[in-house]
Design brief:
Blueprint (H helix, E strand, L loop, with lengths): L9 E5 L3 H11 L4 E5 L2 H7 L8 E5 L7 H9 L9 E5 L4 H9 L4 E4 L4 H57 L4 H18 L11 H10 L12 H4 L7 H7 L2 H19 L6 H20 L20 H16 L10 H10 L7 H20 L8
Parallel strand pairs: 1-2, 1-3, 3-4, 4-5
Helix pairs in contact: 2-3, 6-7, 6-12, 6-14, 7-11, 10-11, 11-12
Length: 382
């Protein structure tokens, strides 16, 4: 069935000789929509206006801008670089043909034209272009679907992790806003430290993203602390405090079991990159859970690590957790004034906290307070 005029491909014929334009036009019009240009400059203008050509027949020997120069310009612009070009020329030297093909032409036809050969080559290259276009559209659709599913999986993972962390916080009379606040504090500190020499190599954008996602899991081990200790309104006894101090290990052990199971279940699966990413995330979560109560001077718990032996994600979490505890109301205390919060945190420089993280905090105090305001807890109803 012949194509309707609207469905016919468009051929742009470029030649400085009027007789050649007439000859090629008469040959092609029964099969294609034909546009013509009698110079290289006009050809470049023609490709910028509809109907855009599906293929170009390009003469090589033209005054002013020759076909090679036109080809170079076509390939220099994204809008035109994929249009198939067939050189049509009286030149028949092998070097001329090689030069044209190296510039990106799909074919090279010598004059005098043999109509059947030219029509066959045009048909072949239009079919190839159509196939490439279909494949490109399918690849684009596939990429969009992959992007959508990755984003969907990330959303589900983040929501699941947040829900899991909320279970621990809810038992401790905390709120979801505590998780939001500490997550944002950690991310803010990490982005700042990523610009500093000491931590720039470790704090890549992907690692910062994983640290932020892992931050809400810092107190997940509290699910293993008995209610009579976790919910006690008054001061804990020494024995109760020792039990409370087990929550970093409980959380870290749970995450370690998850890591071991993930590594075992996917050991022979063709998901190496995904598995490594998941294990890297879980390792950050384990570090935060186990070590966010360590202190820079080595007097923290559970492992009495000191200085840079404490993993950086845990050092970030330590500052974020303490700032939130000081600056927000708790059932056992009111929120401290900003000046008092600063005083306590600065006193911990080099003892409780990494000095460079305190320096980052000093540069980010206004951002911290903006986060605290944005995710403020609702006032008590009684």
């Amino acid at each position: 069935m012949p194509l309707t005029p609207a469905a016919r491909p468009t051929i742009l014929v470029v030649d400085d000789t009027p007789e050649n334009l007439v000859l090629l036009g008469e040959l092609l019009r029964p099969h294609y929509h034909v546009r013509v240009a009698n110079s290289g400059e006009r050809a470049l203008r023609a490709v910028q206006t509809p109907p855009y050509p599906d293929l170009i027949l390009l003469d090589v020997m033209m005054p002013g801008m020759d076909g090679y120069a036109v080809m170079t310009q076509l390939h220099a612009h994204a809008q035109t670089q994929d249009i198939p070009v067939i050189f049509v020329t009286a030149l028949d030297a092998q070097d001329d043909e090689e030069h044209g093909l190296k510039l990106g032409a799909v074919d090279y036809v010598t004059k005098p034209i043999r109509p059947a050969i030219l029509l066959a080559r045009i048909s072949t290259h239009l079919a190839l272009k159509q196939a490439r276009d279909v494949l490109q559209d399918r690849n684009g659709a596939l990429e969009r679907e992959v992007t959508r599913r990755v984003a969907e999986n990330e959303l589900v993972k983040e929501a699941s992790l947040h829900a899991l962390a909320l279970l621990a916080e809810a038992r401790d009379n905390e709120t979801g806003n505590h998780l939001h606040r500490t997550q944002r504090y950690v991310e803010t500190l990490a982005h700042h430290l990523a610009t500093q020499p000491r931590d720039a190599a470790e704090l890549t954008p992907n690692r910062i993203r994983m640290i932020g996602h892992a931050a809400p899991l810092h107190d997940i081990g509290k699910v293993g602390i008995p209610d009579h200790i976790l919910l006690k309104p008054g001061k804990l006894t020494a024995e109760e405090y020792e039990q409370m101090k087990l929550h970093p290990c409980i959380g870290a052990d749970a995450i370690e079991h998850a890591m071991a199971r993930a590594a075992q279940e996917h050991a022979f699966a063709d998901v190496t990159e995904a598995r490594e990413s998941a294990l890297a995330f879980l390792e950050i979560a384990r570090q935060i859970s186990r070590h966010h109560h360590e202190r820079w001077d080595g007097t923290g718990y559970p492992d009495r690590l000191h200085g840079e032996n404490i993993p950086l994600p845990a050092r970030l979490m330590a500052l974020a957790d303490v700032f939130d505890a000081l600056s927000c109301r708790r059932v056992y205390k009111p929120a401290f004034p900003a000046e008092e919060v600063d005083r306590i945190i600065l006193e911990g420089r080099g003892t409780h906290f990494d000095p460079l993280i305190i320096d980052a905090y000093l540069a980010l105090r206004e951002e911290f307070r903006a986060i605290a305001l944005r995710y403020a807890d609702a006032p008590p109803t009684h």
